[in-house]
Amino acid sequence: MKTLSLSLRKLKKSKAATLFGIAGLVTGLICVLYIFFWVNDETSYDQFHKKINRIFVVHAYLQGGTKEVKFNGCPPAVGPALKAEYPEVENSCRYIPTYFKSLLTADGRKEMTGVAFSDNSLFDIFSLPFIYGTKGNPEVVNQIVLTRTTATNYFGNSNPVGKIVRYNNQKDMTVVGVIEDIPQNSSIQFDAVIPLENLRMFYDRDDFLTTWYNNGFTTFGLLTSPSGFDKIATTITRRIQKEMPESTNYLRAYLFKNGYLYEQQHIRNVRIFSLIAILVLLAAVLNFINLITAKSTKQAKETGLRKSIGATRGNIIKLVYSEVAFLCFLALALALIIAVLGLPIFNQLIGKQISFSSLLTLKPLAILVLAYLVTTFLAGSYPAFFLSSFKITETLNSSFYSVKSRGIFRNSLLVTIFMVSIILLASTLIISKQTMFLQNMDVGFNKDQLLYVSLDGKLKEKAKALKEEAERTSGVYSSTIASFLPVTIGNNGEGWNWEGKDPEFKPLVTNWETDEDMIKTLGAKLIEGSYFSSDQKGIVINKAFADAIGWNSFTGKILKGYGTDYKVVGVIDNIEYNSLSETCRPMAIQPIQSWSSNYLILKIDASQMDKTIKSITGICQAIEPDYPVNYGFVDDQYAKLYESETSLKKLVGVFSIFSMVVLCLGLLGVVMFLAEQKTKEIGVRKCLGEDEKSIIIRLVKPFVFAGMFAAMIAIPATWYIMNLWLLSYANRIQLNIWTFVLALLIAITIAVVTVMWQSWKAATRNPVEALRYE
């Protein structure tokens, strides 16, 4: 209590400056806590599965083209082979994610729901706890497992086990179980799951689930022991070649626990933000140390007086750390309260559902305690160890401050704080430019004002009638029927040949189907020839496919695709699809078939958008009243391709604001102390005729020099880090020095404005009062 009372009395002696110091530390800790919340959520992905150390994933990759092409899945025959051929594998499971929503009808309620397809063993491998029922009988096809929210939507709070759910107006499914809602930080997401055998509803082939091609099946394995993984990883590569010797489709295994962070490269952003957290915490602590060193004259003399009455160095270190520990605990407590209160806003900003309760486990709590101890140790290190080391006669000397306390140490702290701010600002500017570049880049067609309608139920078979009716609607310029939206085209293969082709060259070619109005509706660019018409057979290829073939002209030439001859009628410019971070892949476009008619894409008048949507949905409901109308906008789907970059921009921007607040608060506190210590000097200078402007410049100049020196370190470091980040994008901006100059100017401008405000107050003080000041 005595130490607490003493600390509070010291705070009262310099309220404003100490308040700025604590506020800067609190702001820095809030920023660090939010980064910690985000990093903890990212690193906890999929970690709730109890058997996670024994789960692995097998996926395929192609090597026949100019570069390796990876798939998320592999052929359906791989899963059963794993269990049959490897004694190290306890179980295996094939899984098809919810690429498209399906219609579920039950108790008079119908909704488009995310339905996945899976082997029954999914529930043996993953921790998906049941509320009601079980996983059902693996031999039964007509069964369904719902999540809690899905079950509640259809059946309320009652137990739905045994009740009937109709799937896509085609098949009745019996509810066999209800599981808890799947956590947001899970790679496996669905609202309901049905047996994989039901895929035969869409593909009338007996061998659909036994082929050694078709890489659409995500495949999991459960090891009897984690040590068995090495054997699988080293021997699985050429398993497909045992069945199909000419195949260029190879297999690779990785541990499921590494999937989200390392296979999907999310660890890159985790490392970036962990570095930012360290830098911001360092800046906040250095600000706090800066304030403590600014008080070093009084603190040193106080230390000398304590030594003169018998205090040992150990007593002084203990006293100093008690005071600093109290202040740091106060700052951490305030930061935690503010961070928790602001967590809903933070979640809304970054699109996550982070709960404070997720931190109440051993590892996060241990990290928080460690952060507190490190902060306390660093903040108290200078007064505790450095100032307590001087002799009594040195600390009581009136000139102690001028000899010991100014110069290298404080300038080093200022340089470090500026360096952190410049790194964060430059990173924010670069990420923002890259995100804007992706948003505004030429994707090969005009994605604005494109409305799409999913052709569900009778809309598929009556697609042409729907199109004709829609084009008679006011506000619709044109429309086209397509097998996929141009943003997510998932059908591809190696089965293309042409005259002069190297037999070893087997590029992966995307297969897309549209009607004759694609060019008109999407505004795609025709390079050569024409686009096919409804009565014209043939294919149109994209520029990437044309470049891979290498001919000088293509119109009228023949390509062989999967055993069929196709005449090339035209070449279009590349349409960017599936990923904006990769180079465009070869594409072959064929005339649409009734069975592949999945979407109607309409070019509409933006000024009549609401009226047009209402008319289109009315037409759809008249044709197919049993399905809800599923529509959206193509540009919204494109936005999902750079969603991670958009979130990253928001996060870095928020943390940059925090770092600038830390910088400003720290500078205010330091300038207040410096002005206080230079009060007499300022008074003498004014009496000798120096004007206020000159005095202000004299006070501001060291901070400008500190910022310039910091830039010499921060700019090369940021250039290196952000260049590595940009290398993962095939379509990317080029770094230039002006981005870093702008970051430097912003940091220095904010610092100068902050310092000038306090310097002006010091320079305009009455010199008579200044000369009487002691």
TrEMBL record:
UniProt-recorded name of the protein: ABC transporter, permease protein
Lineage of the species this protein comes from: Bacteria, Pseudomonadati, Bacteroidota, Bacteroidia, Marinilabiliales
GO cellular component: plasma membrane
Keywords on record: Cell membrane, Membrane, Transmembrane, Transmembrane helix
Compartment(s) of residence: Cell membrane
PANTHER family in UniProt: ABC-TYPE MACROLIDE FAMILY EXPORT SYSTEM PERMEASE COMPONENT 2, MEMBRANE COMPONENT OF TRANSPORTER-RELATED
Membrane topology: Multi-pass membrane protein
Domain of life, per lineage: Bacteria
One GO MF term attached to the UniProt entry: transmembrane transporter activity
Transmembrane segments: 16-39, 272-292, 324-346, 366-387, 408-431, 651-675, 703-722, 737-757
All residue ranges annotated as the ABC3 transporter permease C-terminal domain in the record: 275-389, 654-767
Pfam families, A to Z: FtsX, MacB_PCD
Keyword hit for Lipid metabolism: no
InterPro entries, sorted: ABC3_permease_C (IPR003838), MacB_PCD (IPR025857), Macrolide_Exporter_MacB (IPR050250)
Domain MacB-like periplasmic core: 22-203, 415-616
